[in-house]
Amino acid sequence: xxxxxxxxxxxxxxxxxxxxxxxxxxxxxxxxxxxxxxxxxxxxxxxxxxxxxxxxxxxxxxxxxxxxxxxxxxxxxxxxxxxxxxxxxxxxxxxxxxxxxxxxxxxxxxxxxxxxxxxxxxxxxxxxxxxxxxxxxxxxxxxxxxxxxxxxxxxxxxxxxxxxxxxxxxxxxxxxxxxxxxxxxxxxxxxxxxxxxxxxxxxxxxxxxxxxxxxxxxxxxxxxxxxxxxxxxxxxxxxxxxxxxxxxxxxxxxxxxxxxxxxxxxxxxxxxxxxxxxxxxxxxxxxxxxxxxxxxxxxxxxxxxxxxxxxxxxxxxxxxxxxxxxxxxxxxxxxxxxxxxxxxxxxxxxxxxxxxxxxxxxxxxxxxxxxxxxxxxxxxxxxxxxxxxxxx
Amino acid sequence: xxxxxxxxxxxxxxxxxxxxxxxxxxxxxxxxxxxxxxxxxxxxxxxxxxxxxxxxxxxxxxxxxxxxxxxxxxxxxxxxxxxxxxxxxxxxxxxxxxxxxxxxxxxxxxxxxxxxxxxxxxxxxxxxxxxxxxxxxxxxxxxxxxxxxxxxxxxxxxxxxxxxxxxxxxxxxxxxxxxxxxxxxxxxxxxxxxxxxxxxxxxxxxxxxxxxxxxxxxxxxxxxxxxxxxxxxxxxxxxxxxxxxxxxxxxxxxxxxxxxxxxxxxxxxxxxxxxxxxxxxxxxxxxxxxxxxxxxxxxxxxxxxxxxxxxxxxxxxxxxxxxxxxxxxxxxxxxxxxxxxxxxxxxxxxxxxxxxxxxxxxxxxxxxxxxxxxxxxxxxxxxxx
Lengths: 392, 385
Fold this sequence. Notes:
The complex is a heterodimer.
Chain A: E1 11-12, H1 23-33, H2 46-65, E2 73-76, H3 79-96, E3 103-107, H4 112-120, E4 127-131, H5 141-147, E5 152-156, H6 170-178, E6 183-187, H7 199-202, E7 206-210, E8 221-225, H8 253-291, E9 296-297, E10 308-312, H9 318-324, E11 328-329, H10 345-349, H11 354-357, E12 360-364, H12 371-391
Parallel strand pairs in A: 1-11, 3-4, 3-5, 5-6, 6-7
Antiparallel strand pairs in A: 2-8, 7-8, 9-10, 10-12
Helix pairs in contact in A: 1-8, 2-8, 3-4, 8-12, 9-12
Chain B: E1 11-12, H1 23-33, H2 44-64, E2 71-74, H3 77-90, E3 94-98, H4 103-106, E4 113-115, H5 125-134, E5 139-142, H6 156-165, E6 169-173, H7 183-188, E7 193-197, E8 208-212, H8 238-277, E9 282-283, E10 294-298, H9 304-313, E11 316-317, H10 333-337, E12 347-351, H11 360-384
Parallel strand pairs in B: 1-11, 3-4, 3-5, 5-6, 6-7
Antiparallel strand pairs in B: 2-8, 7-8, 9-10, 10-12
């Protein structure tokens, strides 16, 4: 007989990589794929106008999620493109205006697309500065203060980390940057819909969002671009001039409708869902840490996403644990690079050795995670760890 | 007693702006919506998503007759055009493009040497040759396979021969081709890169592809994550890509099985009927080879915006040129480049979708003729007043 640790349906605990599309989101999108298929830029006829109206309603919902105005939302293909647009867009606009500011500051634990965008700008005459983080995964405000000055153009700090889940005090960091009139961008792909984000309270100028990280569809995201005072950008690519010239290409109306619905659901259910996930996450941590002496949690213990747990095991390698838990969908780090065998640069940045990073698992709880899933996951991981210890 | 309001579905004749979703694409897309994983994740759910992604890539590659490694998924044709042209420019290539290209080509990089078009809406081959001869810098030439506004099919074979002769790369925006002309024939002419859009191939909005058929590799525009072999960062939009592949496959099969001929017959019927009933109407580029579904039609002295608005009120969806910017109707840049003169402000585009109804020609001609006679009567009144 198989034990209870072999569930028939995989338990998905990788909600940082992507989230399943909420059935309400799918239902909202379907008619816009099929009978209401008009091009939202075909304002000349009825089918185009109804698609345009749907896009604008979705824009309102996405804006409401972060306390922005609808016209401050620029739709993109996702957060990667939004991050590229924010960072390269600010830099290239400043260069075209012959602005004197050349320094672009970011943090070692940012998503790859932020780090690569910042580093790429070195070839365009900018000065990339990559700041270290503390062992708890957060950027020390004093380190930021010593890195920004009046030659700094932009600071990019994520609103929540995709591996270790830490949530910085963004408004405090923004205040430091603002002393020198520096623009602030935040990659909020992991934070949006999970924790409260208000662009006015945070004081950020640019904020990136991804629909598929908040139970919406893959293929759409957004960049918030502050209007007052106005943030100016150059597009990454041009063409038909959609999205006020910042992002050309036919808007994917069905995906945008899904994004809007995902934003509406997240706003309505966030408080309750965050409490539920934090409680499940804490249960999982208690069960695992009681059974596995020496198990360590990475990242700040309280300033973190409710659904995130990042654990370094005392003996077993993450790959072996995952191999012994085929019914659990877990990861060692970011999905983009998870096919790579190299240890996570985020874990290295918080001071883990290569061996420790190799014994680390990322667990991401989400909307579909039930208490029963947590029971099964805990049992499976504990059994897998015991088996690894026995085999060692 | 309440009277039921009779509202018939609008007659959609704006397929060059976007095609209705094909049922095959709908099936693939909705199945992919049920998949949970990120194609880059290594666990079972991620591998299932990866499997669908690579299956879609193989399907697209098979339709085109290229290796699947040549297919790079993007958010759409605009991004595909931008990656190719900006990449060539960054590699130090001189970029040439025909005057009738889509905005996403002409705005992709700067500077671009613009090659003029003939009065029939074709790229001017002697001018292209002269431009290539005049400067030995390695070049990339961008010529679309068929124009989105006039439907005029471009001489890609001749353009490719010129490119070969002068060592230039050839980029072809083929967004308007699926379901209308054989894609693999265009590629086999000797194309280095080719842009496709899912929502013009019977798939959904939000996906497209850059096909790198000869091994030429431009650099990325959007970086990060290393997806699409580093050429295009970001989690792939799996449902849109699955729908794209299924739609493209279906569109090509449908075309080969008489679908395109059926649309050509309907377009021919419209043109013939209009010659009888609205003799003042002019078919633009009448003597050029055109897409089977497209008709650019000028009604002299009547602004295109007026025509489109009146037809919209009559339940007919057409457009005045391309759908891209802001919805405002301005004089078409493409038609001006053809030297159409004042007619370029009076031209509308009729483009039949794959599922155009059997009575599409009759319904369109009736609405168009009614519009033309109402406008003529109004003009007479105005003259008398």
